[in-house]
Amino acid sequence: MKITLDWLREHLEGDYSVAEVVATLNRIGHEVEGVENPAEKLAGFRVAKVLTAEKHPQADKLQVLTVDTGDGDAPLTVVCGAPNARAGLIGVLGLPGAVVPANGMELKVAAVRGVESNGMMCSTRELELGDDHDGIIELPEDAPVGTPFADYSGANDPVIDISITPNRQDCMGVRGIARDLAAAGLGALKPLDVPTITGEGAPATEIRTDDPEGCPAFFGRTIGGVTNGTAPEWMRRRLEAVGQRSISALVDISNYVMFDLGRPSHIYDRAKLTGALVARRANAGETVTALNGKNYSLADTMTVIADNSGVHDIAGIMGGEHSGCSETTTDVLIEVAYFTPERIALTGQALSLTSDARSRFERGVDPAFLDDATAIVTAHVLAICGGTPSAVTRAGTPPADVKTVDYDPALSATLGGIAIAPERQQEILAALGFSVIEQGGRWQVAVPSWRRDVDGAPDLVEEVTRITGFDAIASVPLPRADGVAKPTATAEQLTERRLRRAAAAAGFDEAVTWSFISEAEAAPFGGGVWSLANPISEDLKVMRPSLLPGLLAAAQRNQNRGAGSIRLFEIGRRYLADAEHPTLALLMAGDKSARGWQAGKAAPFDAFDAKAAALSLLEAAGAPADRLQVMEAVTSGNIWHPGQSATLRLGPKAVLAEFGALHPALTRAFDVDGPVMAVQIFLDAFPAKRASGPARAAFAPPALQPVRRDFAFLAATSLTAADLVRAIRGADKAAIVDARLFDRFAGQGVPEGQVSLAVEVELQPAEKSFTDAELKAIADKVVAAAAKVGATLRG
Amino acid sequence: MSDIEAIQAQLLGDIEAAADANAVEALRVAALGKTGSITALLKTLGGMSPEERQAQGPAIHGLREAVTAALAARKAVLDTAALDVKLAAEAIDMTLPADAAPRGSVHPVSQVMDELAEIFADMGFAVATGPEIEDDWRNFTALNIPETHPARAMHDTFYFPPQMNDTEGRAMLLRTHTSPVQIRTMMSEEPPIRIIAPGRVYRSDSDATHTPMFHQVEGLVIDRGIHMGHLKWTLETFLKAYFEREDIVLRLRPSYFPFTEPSAEVDVGYKQEKGRRIVGGNGDDDGHAWMELLGSGMVNRRVIANCGLDPDEWQGFAFGVGVDRLAMLKYGMDDLRAFFDGDLRWLSHYGFGALSVPTLSGGVSA
């Protein structure tokens, strides 16, 4: 909301500067977004008189003028192309050095077709005062030549742009802001001048409300014999200063009262009305063309103003094109109504239609300010357009119950943090229009009709503290618990932190990618369940079912920038139908190691890099790594390389991670080069840790050295390393503490379809060293166990 | 000189002159081998009378020991020399590059969240989380933003279609702020409550300084006797610890949020240095200005009541601040969009080492 200093003075008496106004507004909760003085743009432009005008010797469409600048010097020569330039015209001259507001050009002394021009006679468009560019500005004959144009035009009036919070409808008019400033001690609020207008006879059009729920009150009157010309200069200037284009006297009057007093109204051209003008519910499907030229189809929840011929106004939001005032309007009807805020809000939302009226009505205008507003609008019309007013019809009654709030003045300290003397609180409240009745220390505070936002004691605390100033709030430490700060992170948070640091320590860079991706990106992962109704773009449409698309897209961008080796990870959520699942995803693309003088060629990543990363991260995060089983992948579709991917599980159900090479079809779809390895770790699949206290289990290192024996087996290629090793480990649980596969060979010397697997078995003697016989017995058990899974000892 | 002394002198001289390990071995065999000269002398001891043996024995044994020691010493000298030669031949240009271990990093947003958790833990705040796909009751209605409230228009909300409504028929949306975590916490925990709730939030907004996804951290204190003075202290303490400066000056301005009453916007003083905003100092001082940093206020009684708590017994404050913004102000990034690009160059420049864990004893800035 914009106001001008001059307009503010209309309501606020006192000696104050624009800087003081700005500082006070900020202090009491009206954030000033900017101050602009239009006069600054007009520096270097002054009122000047054309003395002579002659045709340019070199150009048909140009004239050479001599112009009196009013400073007593010889007249200046100015070349001008405007058809209306002529001797005797008083206009606006831009002198060299002035900057033309419309295009930012600095004026210079320059030759135009061989004739030196010492400035420019300006059009209204060039000075951003209007759209007219057919000729130069023509000022009245009595305009004082030599006066800076900013002073002459009254532009020297700072415009203050204020961000009004949505609770303060009362400050969506200059007067409301003046009232707040006065309460804060900046000047005194002038009494509002409400004229007494007794009209003659009933309105020429019947006025009614048939929708008391949506339109509880519809006040109005007709005025006959008006002349709708141009609004007076002062009104136009103020409206234009706050960004409202001047249209015609009647429209400007309605707008002026809205910006001045926060009170929207509507003026109809009676010639366009047929029969009674009624506030009613719209019929479903009924249409109206609004003043913005657009057609709206209405629903039966919406309140409209209509006559026998149809809808003329989307109540409280926007008038209709058909019955708006024009130059030919002679008989008008003034509508000053009260619309139910909630209904206006819902209608506005449904129609996606915003307007200055809506923003006021949906926040709730002053329900006790209908009669006065009607009188004020009428008085402006009579003064500017003439005419004969009717009496006022008051259809319905606005909800004008006085709210009372039970208030304990001690709350300013116990809630607001500022101790303010009760007398001072009373003063502040009174200045804001509240009235206080004391009853045994507690107050009954009557809320003024324009403060719909106030309905509880904390609201009053806000009033007295904001006017006092939040600077007065003294810092008070929160009470501190005894002792050292206790740990506050949950198990899930700790897991996440450990994983993050472990992944970074393992050489991966943490990325944060969008939670929403395109449908195409989500498709290979089964598509996204959560698809936005109003995405910002098709690229950011569905909530990701996997973190891999985001990382693949990031990898692709990095490859485009020439990155040779990509190690990325992200910790975030996957959004599935049942819930949001915290997940770590990790991606490796490009070179694992660059070419080097020792290793030779660059090495690519392989699926076992993904496995190693998955296992070390799971271990770092505290998952029981020794109990994890490698099992086949669970996800279907073309996400993983079907032969080079797997899951890590605790038992058959609990999948803690999946890892391996990504399917080439997937990496191709994302335009990522080369084999890409990936890991996903599912943080919410981790088993809850049992609380066991800080002490570890007792530790007694074995006294004797372990014994290591190697075994080589032949087995079908389908035998997995895990099955063989598990069988061997189980062969003698007392003696065998570890078994590790260290060689796998197929080819020469190994029969077709078979593979040679070598396993190192670690035996731990207890009290005594193993005897040869004992070692032989264990070896036999190992061979027997291996045989059970189809592996035979190599001869 | 006796014969033995002469033999010793001869042998020791030969050993000292031995050129290599083979020569030393040949001398050993010649002196101490089965048919060696000293072996022969030792054998003569058996045929001597006790008196003779007493006279000759020590001399012959002395000879043997001296020669044995000399052989060992000479061998050691020769071995050392041979090793030196071998090592010299193994010399490599140690300026050749070693294989670089890949250097990973932690994203600035994560790092800042860890810093916040550390700072607030010291003030007794736990970290709470909530879903990002929220219902409109927790995101709006319970926070005193009814459907018709103009404040809903302040949030550019991403909605899911009606078929995704929850079992109670509530519309589902992407949370526009972390404030619904307030509701979830107050509904599930008994006061007193002190939490921060960091996380992703979403607004349908995209330009040079806004991204449709960003990060916020919410703070909530619910207790008895909490007032605006506690809020101010908490924010001051937090920002001083976070920016690691004592000269943080806050300016509280009255404002409006439906879920707090009274409400305050909080500005922090800063000055512009070499194109960067450096937080610190009084915004009214020369060369300084104020910038809006966070929103806050006393939790609205209606919100407390909506969560099933008695607003006459419990009151408290809440605040919210952008995490990405905090990161930018402290660490100097200037482009929010880069936070979400995954550019390895940016990550390695602005990211943090794995071991740079923020702690109070080590300093929260890594």
UniProtKB/TrEMBL annotation, chain A:
Signal peptide segment: none
Cross-referenced SUPFAM superfamilies: Anticodon-binding domain of PheRS, Class II aaRS and biotin synthetases, Nucleic acid-binding proteins, PheT/TilS domain, Putative DNA-binding domain
Keyword line: Aminoacyl-tRNA synthetase, ATP-binding, Cytoplasm, Ligase, Magnesium, Metal-binding, Nucleotide-binding, Protein biosynthesis, RNA-binding, tRNA-binding
GO MF annotation terms: ATP binding; magnesium ion binding; phenylalanine-tRNA ligase activity; tRNA binding
Residue stretches making up the B5 domain: 400-475
UniProt KW Transcription keyword: no
EC number: 6.1.1.20
Domain TRNA-binding: 39-150
Essential cofactor(s): Mg(2+)
Cellular localization per UniProt: Cytoplasm
HAMAP family assigned to the protein according to its UniProt record, in alphabetical order: Phe_tRNA_synth_beta1 (MF_00283)
Assembly notes: Tetramer of two alpha and two beta subunits.
UniProt record similarity statement: Belongs to the phenylalanyl-tRNA synthetase beta subunit family. Type 1 subfamily.
Name the record gives this protein: Phenylalanine--tRNA ligase beta subunit
Source taxonomy: Bacteria, Pseudomonadati, Pseudomonadota, Alphaproteobacteria, Sphingomonadales
Automatic annotation (TrEMBL), chain B:
Record keywords, A-Z: Aminoacyl-tRNA synthetase, ATP-binding, Cytoplasm, Ligase, Magnesium, Metal-binding, Nucleotide-binding, Protein biosynthesis
Protein name: Phenylalanine--tRNA ligase alpha subunit
Superkingdom of the organism of origin: Bacteria
Record GO terms (molecular function): ATP binding; magnesium ion binding; phenylalanine-tRNA ligase activity; tRNA binding
Residues noted as binding Mg(2+) in the record, renumbered to the chain: 261
CDD domains, A to Z: PheRS_alpha_core
PANTHER family noted in UniProt: PHENYLALANINE--TRNA LIGASE, MITOCHONDRIAL, PHENYLALANYL-TRNA SYNTHETASE
